[in-house]
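in:
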């Protein structure tokens, strides 16, 4: 089960880095902000670059390497993707919410 309240920030274990998934509703594009020590350090995704949530996830490790930060683990990449879907809202976020409710103890899938 995913803690949906934490999908707006992903702390990379062993670092001072936090990734924040962003969806711009006016441009309908995704990006990922890299924060370190409570300050924004860089943004992965130029304006209009990523139109699908899986695009920034697929290239996040190259971006992190350019910033001198370790690559994401498989679990971190999955949470980043979920965070981008959550940031977008709509049907994708509804599916995350429903899947999370079905995973709660005592619930049927």
């Amino acid at each position: 089960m995913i803690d949906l309240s934490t999908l707006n920030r992903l702390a990379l274990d062993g670092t001072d880095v936090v990734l924040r998934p962003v969806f711009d509703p006016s441009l309908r594009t995704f990006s990922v902000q890299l924060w370190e020590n409570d300050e924004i350090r860089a943004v992965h995704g130029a304006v209009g670059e990523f139109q699908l949530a899986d695009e920034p996830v697929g290239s996040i490790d190259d971006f992190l390497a350019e910033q001198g930060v370790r690559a994401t683990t498989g679990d971190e990449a999955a949470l980043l993707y979920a965070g981008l879907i959550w940031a977008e809202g709509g049907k994708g976020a509804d599916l995350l919410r429903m899947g999370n409710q079905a995973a709660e103890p005592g619930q049927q899938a």
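note: Strands lie at 10-11, 17-24, 29-36, 39-44.
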